Amino acid sequence: MANSLFSYLTIGVLLFTFGIYGVLVRRNLIAILISIELILNGAALNFLAFNRFLTPETSSGEIFVVFIISLAAAEAAIGLSLMLALYRRFHTANVEKIDRLKG
Amino acid sequence: MQEIIFVFLAAITLLGAFLAVHLKNIFHNAVFFGMSLLGVAGFFLLLGSEFLGLVEILIYVGAILVAIIFAIVISPALSRKPESRKPKKEVLALFGSLALGGTLLVTLCRFAPVSWNTLISFGSSPFQITLLGRLLMTEYALPFEIVSVILLIAILGSLLNVKEGPDG
Q1: Any chain B CB within 8 A of the CB of A16?
Q2: Average pLDDT in the B140-151 region?
Q3: A55 CB near a chain B CB, below 8 Å?
Q4: How far apart are CA B152 and CA B81, in angstroms?
Q5: Contacts of B44 in chain A (CB under 8 A)
Q6: pLDDT in tens, B76-86
Q7: A15 — contact with chain B (CB < 8 Å)?
Q8: What is this structure's pTM?
Q9: Backbone dihedral angles phi then psi of residue B28, each to the nearest 5 degrees
Q10: What is the pLDDT of residues A76-89, one digit of tens each?
Q11: Residue B23: other Cβ atoms inside 10 A
């Protein structure tokens, strides 16, 4: 079980599903950010598992995981700074209360 | 032995991910998110990539999680009151994510080639960090440079976002 690609893909799918559930159900901006990070982690796990099991002689999956992690860091920095700016202006982190653009 | 490690890692990853999205207190979410990240780092180690396992702990747990907790504690109203949810929205979100995840799992079970179930022996050809470094400097040099520019822009952009403006 530990040595088959199938079990790693299942873990990746479950992480992705939990992330999607979090994005849909949460109303707190930071919680949505955490859920997006879970989605990215599921994708990264899939990349590394495919690399390890199907083409073990190359390192391309590993390189993609490096890129995913650095983009996730950039995204978290931007997301948290947006959260702080919104919190300062609207005094809430609830995304359903920040609806000025709704018209 | 490897089975036990795999099951243990799967348990802490999935339990941490579930509690990270389900609990209503944002501080608890962040802590269980960290637990899930440690599990994913363990999977990276188990897959033979020591470098990525350490990078995952260093960047995710060391930088992103600390930044998230920092944002939580400097806006105190966030950590005090747990959020309320509409039950209708909760049911719809559960249905939507179960539909997506179920579709993915069924596709995986039905159409995965049999070879994906074959076992490989670990340690036969572990990832080499020298190969990774060489690829980043030769074949993947352009994406590497673009990612560094993106990181620079992200730093400047986040500083600009939180700057106290005349109307901020």
Answers
A1: yes
A2: 94
A3: no
A4: 35
A5: 45, 48, 65
A6: 666 666 667 77
A7: yes
A8: 0.89
A9: -60, -40
A10: 999 999 888 888 88
A11: 15
